[in-house]
Amino acid sequence: MGTSRNGSSTRTARRLAAGVALGAAAALALGTPAASAGPDGDRPGRGGPPPTGHDLPKVPVMTGSGGAVASVDAVASQIGIDVLADGGTATDAAVATAAALGVTEPYSTGIGGGGFFVHYDAATGAVETIDGREAAPMTYDETVFLDDAGAPMPFWKVVNSGLSVGVPGTPATWERAVERWGTQRLGDLLKPAERLARTGFVVDQTFHDQTVANSERFSMFPETARVFLPGGEAPAVGSVFRNPDMSRAYRELRTHGVDSLYDGRMGRAVVAEVQEPTTAPGVEVPKGEMTRADLAAYATRDKAPVRSEFAGRDVYGMPVPSSGGITVAEILNLMEAYEERTGTPTSGVDDVQYLHRFSEASATAFADRNRYIGDVPGVPTEELVSQAFADERSCLFEAGAAMARPVPFGNPDGDYAECDGGEPAGVLPHEGMSTTHLSVIDRWGNAVSYTSTIEQTGGSGITVPGWGFLLNNELTDFEFRPITPGVPHPNLPGPGKRPRSSMSPTIVVGADGLELVAGSPGGSTIITTVAQIVLGHYERGLSVGDAVAAPRLSSRNGSSESAEPQIAGTDVGAGLTALGHRLSPTAEIGAATAIGVLGPNRYTAAAEPTRRGGGSAMVVHAED
Ligand code: GLU
Q: For the CA atoms of the chain, what is the radius of gyration?
């Protein structure tokens, strides 16, 4: 945790929070209720030290200097702030925060998962990325998720199985990021997470609800039930949740390096459990095929980002195997093309017309995403993010009526005309809703946008015995069979292949340098959430905090589109319906974080005020 845990940064964050109205979830995070008090009076649980940061409030927006961190969890954000206050870089803080999120958000991220790390270097202006996506075992081919009759296996059967588990990329990502842009030792950056897992954190409503929602499938795996359903039940709100096995896992990575996972005893435990999942009596699940050779062969990939231009700025995102960078770029390009086509800027239309445009742009971009993007050679990235392609694709747009769904996919062939009607597109069935995003900027202006995941909330449901972390089910992000008959599909399983992702860690750079860091969880809605934050901030006059909090809509080329109640149940929703949009009311979409740059070493960190129980934005030195 470092010596600054009780230092000025902690005090500043708490003092500022005291003046901010806290939501219900934030109040819960504050609690040390009687139920958790142990024999030592104010010591929760069965003695031992109080849980790390148990009284930290969640504050959704904070402005100040010295560096900023925004994540979904107050303890994790504070751990990152402490690293920044101690002189660490954005990368150092991002890794320490991510490791802490592995403890407090074990159903969304952690050692058993993967992710994408995007870095901005203030000295050079360079944006670079690390692809830490999970990989399929070398034995996989296009038929791996088909049954003996050639039909796709039931989705949930594959989720809760060894077959869905990809080779984890997260520890290797941390190691690579620190090697490239860190100044501290990985082992030191993992210490706060190790301690947090040992001393515990106070259970909030979101963690409790996620455990309850997964309790049936967690019960399929005795080790998962032992760790996450202590006493057979989801831990109560306000109680302290400790995970000594996960603490041991962090200690192992800290003292033996990530090789313990890729070529050591932690890896042997992973492989054994994937190949022969330990299940409750009467429960049978498909076995996985990951081997020690698959683990040993895993490597992160350094990649150039996807770059596109929007509103006079450079927007950087994650390339293949994520579809995030490309699809966010196409949506933004289409919004600019609609301005050209209609003669009215995005900033000048009412909310109905704005969301109509956004929905049409999203559906169009998703048609192209689904057709062209996957972990295959030859993805036409430059064409897909070109303004010329978006200009051609924009010809389908009408201000007075929604396009029929599914919108056809286009031809990013470099030869663009006034209009190309496109070709019939298929619609995707499943995508998860888990994951977590953290945003960090340090005092020098270096930035990290990092989204990490274990796919579903609770991943595969399989906990590695003795190590306390859940394994991902990322391989269900592959399609089980082609979505459009007769059309080659880029996202079928293959040996060593990485499944297509929607994760969209994003960095926006303007003429004077870094302006915005943003990202979100939410499966394929990640793409629309991030695009909406960028549009909200640059085109709809919203501050970064308001752009994160604003109501969301997500159109992904299905027959209906998700809309939060503040859209679906209002005049705006009625206006969209009148244009032909079929809205599907959805309680919440995404759980974003962002940081905006206000000037040299002056930042606004932003997290959700309410979605997923609210997030936590912090700066090292808060402005009063
Ligand atoms: N597995 C998803 C992806 O990579 C993320 C899952 C989620 O955000 O819930 O796109």
A: 23
Handedness of CA 348, 352, 358, 364 (dihedral sign): negative
Separation between Cα atoms, residue 290 and residue 349, nearest integer Å = 52
8: left (phi over 0), alpha (psi -120 to 50) or beta: alpha
Distance CA 106, CA 576 (A): 38
Which residue, by CA, sits nearest to atom 3 of ligand 1? 501
- List ligand 1's pocket residues with C-beta within 6 A: 432-435, 453, 455, 474, 477, 501-503, 521-523, 526
Give the separation between CA 97 and CA 73, rounded to whole angstroms.
9
* Structure letter (DSSP) for residue 388: H
Q: Which amino acid is at 384?
A: L
DSSP class of residue 473 equals -
Question: Which residues, other chains included, contact 96 with Cβ-Cβ below 8 Å and sequence gap of 6+?
Answer: 79, 80, 82, 83, 88, 189, 190, 192, 193
Distance of CA 503 from the midpoint of ligand 1 (Å): 6
- Rounded to the nearest 5 percent, the helix, strand and coil shares of the chain are 40, 15, 45
Instruction: Determine how β-strand 583-585 pairs with β-strand 561-563.
Output: parallel
- Tokens representing 500 are 């297509």
Task: State phi, psi for 581 to the nearest 5 degrees.
Answer: -80, 140
Secondary structure of residue 266 in the 3-state scheme: helix
**Which atom number of ligand 1 is nearest to the Cα of residue 499?**
4
Q: 588: alpha, beta or left, given left = phi > 0 and alpha = psi -120 to 50?
A: beta
Q: Residue 309 — φ and ψ, nearest 5°? A: -110, 135
CA-nearest residue for atom 7, ligand 1, is: 523
The model carries a pTM of 0.92
**Ligand 1 centroid, distance to 501 Cα (angstroms):** 6
Band of pLDDT at residue 22, cut at 50, 70 and 90: very low
- Name 233's Cβ contacts closer than 8 Å, sequence gap at least 6: 215
Q: Which residues face 597 on adjacent strands?
A: 603
**Active-site residue (options: 104, 206, 346, 435):** 435
Q: What are phi and psi of 445, to 5 degrees?
A: 95, 5
| Strand residues in 75-206 grouped as ranges (E) | 114-120, 127-132, 201-202
pLDDT band for 239, please (50, 70, 90 cuts): very high
Strand partners, 302: 130
Gap from CA of 525 to ligand 1 centroid (Å):
9
- State how far the alpha carbon of 394 is from the alpha carbons of 14, 57, 376, 540, in Å: 49, 45, 27, 21
SS3 592: coil
| Token representation of residue 31 | 């609690």
Q: How far apart are CA 392 and CA 140, in angstroms?
A: 38
CA–CA gap between residue 428 and residue 374 (Å, rounded): 14
Q: Whose CA is nearest to atom 5 of ligand 1?
A: 523
Closest ligand 1 atom to Cα of 432: 9
For residues 503 and 526, what is the distance between their CA atoms, to the nearest angstrom?
A: 6
Q: Residues 588-599: what's their mean pLDDT?
A: 97
Decide if 435 is catalytic. Answer: yes
Q: CA-to-CA distance for 131 and 433, rounded, in angstroms? A: 20
Whether 52 shows a pLDDT value over 80: the answer reads: no
For 114-124, write each residue's pLDDT tens digit. 999 999 999 99
274-330: pLDDT as tens digits: 999 999 999 999 999 999 999 999 999 999 999 999 999 999 999 999 999 999 999
Task: Return the DSSP state at 431.
Answer: -
Q: Which residue has the tokens 């010596």?
A: 3
